[in-house]
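User: Sequence in, structure out. Go.
Assistant: Echoing your sequence, followed by the structure tokens.
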Amino acid sequence: AFFITAAMCGLALIALIVLFQENRPGPSGEARAPDRPVPLREFLRYPHFVPVMVLLVIAQFIDRGLSLTIPLHVAHLPGIDASAAMSGIIISVAAAGAALSSSVVARLSMALPIGRLLFVQFLIGGALCSALALATSASTLLVLRTLVALCLGGALTLAYTLGGMIVPSETRGAAFGWLAMGVQIGTAASPLLSGALAAVSLGNAYLMDAGLAAVATLVLAFGAPDLLRRREPRRH
């Protein structure tokens, strides 16, 4: 598995070197002013920036937590000999579902408010996370995990889109950098907390994910209700 990962990284590097061409701006009479660094405190003054960062942390936390909990769950299921292979199948199918979800919500966001789509995703995804605690077979686990991926797979995409809509275009790149910091916080905290809860009970880890999804719906409904009506600007 490690050799395959290394090979894929090498393939990505080759593709970057061979296929990517950077378009540099040509010389002009007026020198371009250097971009000034934008501190985090400046973005914290924008309405809804903190709620969007919270949504990103929760979405990433749930996704990374399930990646850890699913193999542990499969290992404890009765009658599963090749638990590593079964875990790989479940995780791969869920990843495909998440990719499909991102594609679908990107299209739906052109017609429906982005915040409302995100609210529905967290609402249904949280309920399905609770159901995962009751799974007693590999097939049930596969179906439920795939459904969670279909519901929450586009959450990061939608939250990033909301983040880009609430800041001025000239500082959008810096804003995405700070929002990505929130995603990394979720990435770092999820294995620690999910692993600690799973050591006591796997059901507790799933219920924590469900609780966080409920927190996300409350953030949207009461902390930033204006986001429920935000639509992506139409392109002409």
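User: And one key feature?
Assistant: The chain has one domain: 41-229.
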